[in-house]
Amino acid sequence: MDKKAVWEGVVARLSQTVGKSHILSFFKDSAILDNKDGILTVGIPTIMGLQFIKDRFEKRLYELISEALPDVKEIRYEVKSSLLDEENVDKLDSRMISEMEGKKSVRKVPNRQEVLMPDGIRSKMFNTQYTLDTFIPGNENKLAHAACMAVAARPGNIYNPLFLFGGVGLGKTHLLQATGNQILKNFRDKTVVYMTSERFINEIVEAIGSRHTKSFKDRYRNLDCLIIDDIQFFGNKSSSQQEFFHTFNELYDNKKQIILSSDRPPNDLDGLEERLTSRFGMGMIVELLLPDFETRLAILNTKCSEHEVMIDREVLEFIAFNVNNSVREMVGVLVKAIAEWELTKTTPTIKSVSDTIRRLNRNIDIKGYKQEDDSRKLIVRTNEDVIDLVAQYYKITKSDMISDDRRKELMLPRQVCMYLIREILNQSYATIGESFSGRNHTTVMHSCGKIEKELKDDTRVSRDINALKKEIGI
Ligand code: ADP
Ligand code: MG
Fold first, then answer.
1. Is the CB of 307 under 6 A from ligand 1?
2. pTM above the 0.70 mark?
3. What is the per-residue pLDDT across 365-374, written as a single tens digit (0 to 9) for each?
């Protein structure tokens, strides 16, 4: 069996059904390690990746693998950090992943997409993180999302202009940029320009100052799609309004797409001429609203996938519940939590995110968390975490725990510890052995088996394990 070919085929098929290419990044460096006696072992380089893949795809992977290899009866997942090593030949590497994602060329600037631009227009980049895929519509904003999809499919045809409005941090910029990105994806040769209204005004003012309004007009006339964000800042700048009015008409008459956003509906825009606001009404006007709890949670989940991190659902729920006035603020809390996670290698907890929320917004009334809840939940992530916890519980030192010392009072804690690591972190016997002074995997297997047996009739062992699990929060 060509393990690599099978695995590549399975992941490629999985990617077709999940549809979200960022999911694929979780499979980077994974491999089929072994396939013997109907048991196939999949290796994933990190615990987080393993949990993510098991949580989401265990069933589907079983189906796909059994289609390819009908003899397989059971699939085991194992954390194997050595897969990160460059020379491992069986694993899925980044190149294969990008091929599956259908990426044709290497991006020159990370996260930015270069845009074909006529001379002299400066706004050149889109943030490629903002896509229509990563925008979670929810009930509140599905109309806005659908309108953007329609515009991206047929720019200049329907919903022209498209006018999105809504409060701060509800996703206007995201949708505007995502629509621009999608138009460029659908029509490679179209010229799409995104800019903020300030930038647009600056360009106009410069053009007027240097008496180059004609060339300014010519430049914009050649666009296929003009996107201007936050047009509430247009107010009371009459000469730029005048220019904008001309540009708008010119584009509109030539069936070029115009997309605008503002923090309020067209009629409430101060200082904007009536003739301009009434033109905005010729197309489609959609309001963005604050998403409900479920949608906010889904947004947080997408952001975690984008950052390739996993954070406890409980913590995400806590953020979604408490930061409920702006998606931007909510995402801000998450990004801070992720940064903290990356810097300190500590998992975000309800306590740490509630501190972050307080730092960002002192007046907020945080619900679902009380000061005395501090140690309510202890989260273990690594073998070391479990070893520390179990050593503490049995009041022995960590070095005794992992030593070769065969005293009876050390044997039980050690076996319990191995058993818990196996059960909670899903580690292989070999990896567990490494954490215990390089013990052989059969020793670990024997210890785990012993505890499993004792759990059935020894009340002390099952009491200890239950107490430890409770402390861990499971
Ligand atoms: P606005 O321009 O309305 O002030 P942004 O577009 O800057 O808001 O959105 C703020 C943040 O919230 C961005 O990170 C954006 O990706 C995110 N966001 C807002 N709404 C959604 C949504 N429905 N799905 C996914 N992300 C969202
Ligand atoms: Mg914005």
1. no
2. no
3. 666 655 444 4
